[in-house]
From TrEMBL:
<feature type="region of interest" description="Disordered">
    <location>
        <begin position="70"/>
        <end position="106"/>
    </location>
</feature>
<dbReference type="InterPro" id="IPR000387">
    <property type="entry name" value="Tyr_Pase_dom"/>
</dbReference>
<feature type="region of interest" description="Disordered">
    <location>
        <begin position="179"/>
        <end position="205"/>
    </location>
</feature>
<dbReference type="GO" id="GO:0004725">
    <property type="term" value="F:protein tyrosine phosphatase activity"/>
</dbReference>
<dbReference type="InterPro" id="IPR000242">
    <property type="entry name" value="PTP_cat"/>
</dbReference>
<dbReference type="InterPro" id="IPR003595">
    <property type="entry name" value="Tyr_Pase_cat"/>
</dbReference>
<feature type="domain" description="Tyrosine-protein phosphatase">
    <location>
        <begin position="230"/>
        <end position="485"/>
    </location>
</feature>
<feature type="coiled-coil region">
    <location>
        <begin position="502"/>
        <end position="529"/>
    </location>
</feature>
<keyword id="KW-0175">Coiled coil</keyword>
<dbReference type="InterPro" id="IPR016130">
    <property type="entry name" value="Tyr_Pase_AS"/>
</dbReference>
<feature type="compositionally biased region" description="Low complexity">
    <location>
        <begin position="74"/>
        <end position="97"/>
    </location>
</feature>
<dbReference type="InterPro" id="IPR052782">
    <property type="entry name" value="Oocyte-zygote_transition_reg"/>
</dbReference>
<protein>
    <submittedName>
        <fullName>Uncharacterized protein</fullName>
    </submittedName>
</protein>
<dbReference type="Pfam" id="PF00102">
    <property type="entry name" value="Y_phosphatase"/>
</dbReference>
<dbReference type="InterPro" id="IPR029021">
    <property type="entry name" value="Prot-tyrosine_phosphatase-like"/>
</dbReference>
<feature type="domain" description="Tyrosine specific protein phosphatases">
    <location>
        <begin position="407"/>
        <end position="476"/>
    </location>
</feature>
């Protein structure tokens, strides 16, 4: 009787243990699959290889699991007193119990061992899975990384980087079209490896910098072109002139020309509006920039031509006048007085009323800014506002030591003009004036093409204003002004090489000025005799 009681209790416990193990394993596998799916969704991947393998393993495990027989014990807690009292009955019960125990215990124990083994394999799998996921997050796992590469901003250095905005935009639009069409026709989504490759392509397109043409040009000048070589280049091309031109208007109006050797070609001359053909001449030429900005290069007004000068300013709606000479230099008049000097002063110049509205603070060293109100003498209406910018420290036939004020003056004139013509004059209107205009022309050409030849600046401008850029010094100064302009626009760093190049220019100008001063003293002595 004791044997029956001892055998029935362990059997029930084994059965319950097997059932619970089976349920736990199934729940564990289900939770694992759910966890894997959540992880894969967070990683942005679908139909992961790992998920497919574990789903397959999960199905195989379910197939291998043998259903535990549902053994019912009416009263597992029954005792010996409940059993038949006769010896035959006792023998029968004991024998039946042994047979039932032996036949049922063997598969249950095997199943328990099998479930323990499966449980261990599940634990090993979970260990590998979470270890690989941790490595994947840390970027050291053997599994392929799937992440979006965020393009980093390029490091700031003296080379200005310009991005392929158009190229990147077209590439992204093309990719969107291809991806949308793929979804429309039901094509499979790209694999993680393909996504990574596409991300790398995008990143390379966005990050790949292009050296600014202005930077490349400036570096070439600083490192490969000496100041003397620039002067020699001008000397070799000094005689450049347009192939075909006529000067009929210039020849008919000799009294209106300040110099008899500075001609004005017909093709680009400014024709005075609202005048008869015999009275429409002024020694001034149109000069057009690549971006469409127009300049009027003209000689310093003569006393008898002041009315023509202001007529041109009003009819062409020129809002800015750039003066690059003094009224008198040495013993020679370079330009007649064509505007009042003091604030609120009003004057009549060639039949035009000019009033000084305001004398602005000097915007740059040596640069004067005066705001004028101009109107015709027979006009009682509101006047036309003109900004007069004057640089009285640019000597004739030479150049300033510091290019910064000239560049500041150039930028200010473009801003104040607001797209209207800018009138520039010195004395003859071809040396200092053409050099000033050449800054704008050359800067635009260089920005479009790094290897643009500066000799072409001479050729192009002289086809518009005959004899533009008179001397080698002015040609060298043009290069120095461009370097200063590009540096002020952050297209060039003011490093040691930049400073050395500027110092070499200053040294050359000082030596040249000494020679010019010596010649002027000698000329003055000869005139006195």
């Amino acid at each position: 009787m004791g044997i029956g009681n001892e055998e029935s209790v362990p059997l029930h416990e084994h059965i319950e243990e097997v059932k619970q193990s089976s349920i736990v394993c199934e729940e564990l596998m289900d939770d694992t699959v759910v966890e894997i799916q959540k992880t894969m969704i967070e990683a942005g991947t679908e139909k992961s290889v790992v998920l497919e393998e574990e789903d397959k393993a999960h199905k195989e495990m379910k197939q291998q699991m043998v259903t535990v027989p549902d053994i019912k014990i009416s009263n597992p807690s029954s005792t010996a007193s409940d059993l038949p009292s006769s010896s035959n009955a006792s023998t029968t019960v004991n024998s039946a119990s042994r047979v039932e125990s032996t036949s049922t215990e063997e598969p249950v124990l095997k199943k328990a061992k099998f479930m323990k083994k499966k449980k261990k394999s599940v634990e090993l799998f979970l260990g590998r899975f979470f270890r690989d996921r941790r490595k994947k997050r840390e970027g050291t796992g053997s599994a392929e990384k799937v992440r979006t590469v965020k393009p980093r901003a390029p490091k700031k250095d003296f080379i200005t980087t310009v991005y392929h905005e158009d190229v990147v935009g077209e590439a992204l639009q093309e990719q969107k079209k291809s991806s949308s069409s793929a979804v429309a026709v039901g094509l499979p989504k790209p694999s993680p490896k393909q996504q990574q490759q596409e991300s790398d392509v995008k990143s390379s397109l966005i990050r790949s910098p292009v050296v600014d043409n202005r930077t490349a040009w400036a570096q070439n000048i600083i490192t490969k072109r000496s100041i003397k070589s620039l002067a020699r280049e001008f000397a070799a091309n000094k005689k450049i002139k347009p192939a075909d031109f006529t000067t009929e208007a210039y020849e008919r109006n000799d009294a209106k020309n300040r110099y008899n050797d500075i001609i004005c070609i017909d093709a680009t001359r400014v024709v005075l509006k609202d005048r008869l053909p015999e009275d429409d001449y002024i020694h001034a030429s149109w000069m057009t920039m690549p971006d469409g900005q127009k300049y009027i290069c003209t000689q310093g007004p003569l006393l008898e031509c002041v009315g023509d000068f202001w007529h041109m300013i009003l009819t062409e709606r020129s809002k800015v006048i750039v003066m690059l000479c003094n009224f008198n230099e040495g013993k020679h008049e370079k330009c007649c007085l064509y505007l009042p000097k003091e604030k609120k002063e009003v004057g009549n110049f060639g039949g035009f009323i000019v009033e000084v509205r305001d004398c602005k603070p000097d915007p740059f060293e040596g640069i004067k800014h005066t705001e004028l109100d101009v109107k015709s003498g027979d006009d009682d209406g509101k006047g036309f506002i003109v900004h007069h910018l004057a640089n009285f420290e640019w000597p004739d036939h030479t150049a300033p030591l510091n290019p910064a004020p000239t560049i500041g003056m150039f930028k200010l004139s473009r801003t104040l003009a607001a797209g209207k013509p800018i009138t520039v004059h010195c004395s003859a209107g071809i040396g200092r004036s053409a050099t000033f205009v050449a800054i704008d022309y050359a800067a635009q050409k260089i920005k479009a093409k790094a290897d643009f030849s500066m000799v072409d600046v001479i050729r192009d401008l002289r086809s518009q204003r005959y004899q533009a850029i008179q001397s080698a010094i002015q040609y060298v100064y043009l290069h120095v002004c461009l370097l200063e302009l590009f540096a002020s626009d952050n297209a060039l760093q003011r490093d040691s090489k930049f400073s050395e190049y500027m110092d070499s220019y200053v040294s050359m100008i000082k030596r040249y000025n000494k020679k010019v001063e010596a010649k002027q003293r000698e000329r003055s002595r000869s005139e006195e005799k």
